[in-house]
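Colleagues,

For the teaching module next term, I've prepared a clean inverse folding example: a structure given as tokens, and then the sequence designed for it. I'd like students to try predicting residues themselves before seeing the answer, so please don't circulate the second half yet.
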């Protein structure tokens, strides 16, 4: 079986699956580049409103290919990062459906998504210390931003692993999905459904604004940042149509 990123655009969602079963979905340079290209195709497809990233069972992603990692210079490391950095920079909402081990670069791939859902066998394993390797790809920034300094330090400095349950408790994963991989992916599709139903430009602009406001320290600055895109959405035909439909439903009660 050829290792690949399986890309499926269906019902408003791009489902991207790292499919390399012999290596437990480890990211080779080719797979990383292929994942970045798949993210770009999803962004370019106007029918897609959200992206789900997952791994072919039983793993999520066992990390970077160790041979490529061992030979890498600065440019090579950036090539290793390319796949998960594309997910991190994606203009569409992203969900990581984690059904198995997410190790090293696989942990970074999970960190790169906006939201994480976990199945019973999910594990988040830093493994950098075990290899005598400094974290890379922005792991220290992403983990502190999502987990806070204490839990991020436990992972980066002490190699602490998070199970599915502890990931939810720590706020790393949104929720636990009790079931097989298909149930996990379906839960991710269900989560994505409101974004699929919404006007695509509103989804895109909301994600842009969330990135803009995440570093702000004052409420007033966030109000200002939201003003122009909210006015644009108020002027759009989609808002007028949906407002009229909602009024009609209310009046018909």
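(Answer key — instructors only)
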């Amino acid at each position: 079986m050829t290792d690949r990123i399986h890309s499926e655009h269906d019902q408003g969602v791009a489902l991207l699956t790292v499919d390399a079963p012999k290596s437990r979905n480890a990211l080779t340079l080719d797979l990383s580049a292929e994942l970045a290209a798949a993210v770009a195709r999803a962004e370019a497809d106007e029918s897609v409103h959200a992206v789900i990233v997952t791994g072919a069972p039983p793993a999520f992603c066992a990390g970077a290919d160790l041979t490529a990692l061992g030979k890498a210079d600065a440019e090579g490391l950036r090539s290793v990062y390319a796949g998960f950095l594309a997910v991190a920079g994606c203009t569409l909402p992203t969900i990581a459906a984690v059904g198995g081990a997410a190790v090293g670069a696989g942990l970074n791939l999970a960190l790169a998504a906006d939201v994480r859902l976990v199945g019973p066998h999910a594990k988040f394993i830093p493994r950098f210390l075990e290899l005598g390797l400094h974290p890379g790809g922005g792991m220290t920034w992403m983990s502190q931003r999502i987990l806070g300094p204490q839990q991020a330090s436990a992972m980066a400095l002490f190699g602490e692993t998070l199970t599915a349950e502890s990931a939810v408790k720590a706020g790393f994963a949104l929720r636990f999905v009790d079931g097989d991989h298909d149930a996990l992916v379906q839960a991710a599709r269900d989560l994505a459904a409101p974004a699929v139903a919404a006007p695509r430009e509103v989804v895109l602009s909301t994600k842009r604004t969330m990135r803009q406001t995440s570093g702000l320290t004052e409420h007033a600055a966030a109000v200002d940042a939201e003003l122009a895109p909210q006015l644009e959405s108020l002027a759009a035909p989609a808002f007028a149509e949906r407002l009229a439909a909602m009024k009609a439903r209310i009046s018909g009660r």
